[in-house]
Amino acid sequence: MNKEYLLYLIRSKKHLSIFMLIVTMLPTLLYVLTLPTTSSYASYEAIEMTLYAYIFIVMAESFILPFVYFSFLQSKRALDTYYNIPISKPELIGTNFIHMSTQIIIFGIIGTLIPVLMNIGFLNRPYMVLALYVLTSIFAIIVSLFVLSIIYKTNSLFDSIVLSLAYITIPFLIVTVLGVFDNHQIYGLTNTFDWLNPYIILLMTCLAPLLNVETLIGDVEMVFDIEVILLIIEALIIGIVCFISIKKDIKRRKAEVSETVSSNFFAWPLAIGLITMCLLFIFVFGIDDTLTMILSFAFVFIAYLIMTFIYRRKIRFTKHDLLLFGIGIFASLTILAIANATDGFYLSRSYRSIDNIKSFDIYVSIEDGQSDTEVIGYDLYNEMTMSITDKETINDVIAIIDDLYERYKSGEDDYVPYYQATADYSSSLYISMFISDDDGRRFDFGHRIYVNDDKDIDDIEKIVALIEDIDGTVSASVYDELYGSISENASISEVRKTVENWR
Amino acid sequence: MLEVRNVYKEFKDQKVLKDLDLTIEDGKVFGLVGVNGAGKSTLLRSIAGVYDIDEGSILFDNEVISDDPEIRRNILLIGDDPYFSRTSTIDDLVAFYSSFYPFDHEAYYKYLNMFALDPKKTINTFSKGMKRQAFLIMALAIKPRLLLLDEAFDGLDPLTRLDFKKALAELLNDDKVSVIISSHNLKELEDICDSFGLLENGQIKTSGDLDIAKSAINKYQVVFDKEMTIDDFKDFDIVNFDQKGRVSTIVIKGDQEVVEEKLNAMSPLILDVLPIDFEELFIYEVETRGTLHE
What we know:
The complex is a heterodimer. By secondary structure, chain A is α+β, with helices and mostly antiparallel strands.
């Protein structure tokens, strides 16, 4: 870091700093202006919304500001000045980054602490907000490192903005490819790759923290959950990779490349390749008839042409481009053929053994019949969560639930009972059933039972019988928690058949 | 002293500087000339540390310039299209440059008054010449040991050019200051430079003291009693030949006395030696190599 340059940045960017402070404080200001005092729940909800807004703003700042601070890298004129001033390149970049990140972090802590301190009494776990703040700050730095690494790989501001957006969109495409593959190529199961999605989505670094706000402020134990820890580790790896990439590019990238075509492999070539391959896989895995597939190839080819035009800024299509597209089609069709020959890479119809299920949690909540929102994590509603291992208690609980349901059915109670059982680890078979009316609307009634032994299957059969008594259609799903749904929208007779098969 | 030794610089497949050598002593004003695309700006940017050279070395006071901030503190590049942000004023430039370089505020106000620029006005609203003046004021206030001016006179009106040359002369009172100026305005360079270098095909083909170089090429106007052709002068190192009737105007390389003696031996009716200026010198030098494109 260069002290003289930092002082210059503080002086010269004061208007930007004031703007950033106001924007970062906006959620807090709104919170203060509309301070709820009616109930702890309202306060909690307001704080939660404030923190959501805070994270959104911080992530937006950490995504946008690198373009403001480092746009000089994309301008020949600016580099004549910035690379001539007596500062080494690492100091120049480092000082800009420190000035930018410090503002995000400092303004962020002000924005976070004010609503928390004002209502600390309403929060069960105020220190979790600190954890949220620390994690958000780390994520903000990672996002800025990610954008800066893209800026270094590209040679114009336009390319750096477009490719940064492309690289945070590509993980969505990959998730879509896996989903399409799952639905169309793996028979009998769905959600095969659900466990993978958070890790892929984290690659869209900007959005990842938003997905985890509720986890962080809702349940302290979740922070220490292995999934969350793995996500944090993945985020740190992304940050380290970006940091190393930037460090190398500071030395490697030459001033003269600015304002030229962004031909670095990690700029347009890789982005075009990934987007094209994802589109090809989506169509190849998802479409069965040949004509539609050919049309979809034509669509992808047009998309490929447009991307190549934006990359080179001129309409030029070489034999090399054509060859690459041909290889893309060939590769996607080959993978499709392998998937067909192997029943989705041997992932189809893979059932887990139920022998090693040892315990499960059962969770029951009573919801407001008007609300379709399930509230988890604090004690505002009648609800209970228990971890039980003996089957007798489970049956007692089911009996209570059944009783609640009977009361609901007979109109004695306005409340809808909702209950579900979830296994404490992901290697169980279970069945869940939701009752729908003739229009397909789902009632707030569900039953999910994990199957450990014949007695559980008895319980399921009891539920099946119960459902058969009810007016309306039944929508049931049978799941293997590790591999996903075995059958969706099954009829009650199919459920019966599946349960009998288990037996 | 600036020493450029065996410097190579390549952009993609285009070799811009090829085994380039150049030495500029302290206190000299060096005019860098060459046709468009010859590599003048590339050379200046390489000296300023903006471009990393592929091979060779660039030394200032026997220290490699490259990425060493302390060496670069002595060197200032004013590019052909200097950078400023959209909202920058001259005051902002002062804040920027004074953060990194020793800045003579007294000189700054002096030259600010001389060029009559408003320091509070955004530079974006200035004319091209005024923008250039703003940056020249910075250079004159920073007083770097080595000032690199790319297309220095571009956009300056005649009066401002005069003011600028005066200011530069004041800067050069410090005999340790060197200036490299690239410009297509050779008439202006001639007034201010005491040495020059002709950059051609990535190398400095001709360089040295401007007066000596000019004296090495002379224009002779000769009248004979008959019409002459270029073949009649095959013993001379002819750069340019023009014949109008019996009057021959010949640009000949070589020592003036020797050439005059040889021409007199041909018994001309009239022999006049006309001085050539820097622009003509440039044109003749480039023409002889057949690389003049403009």
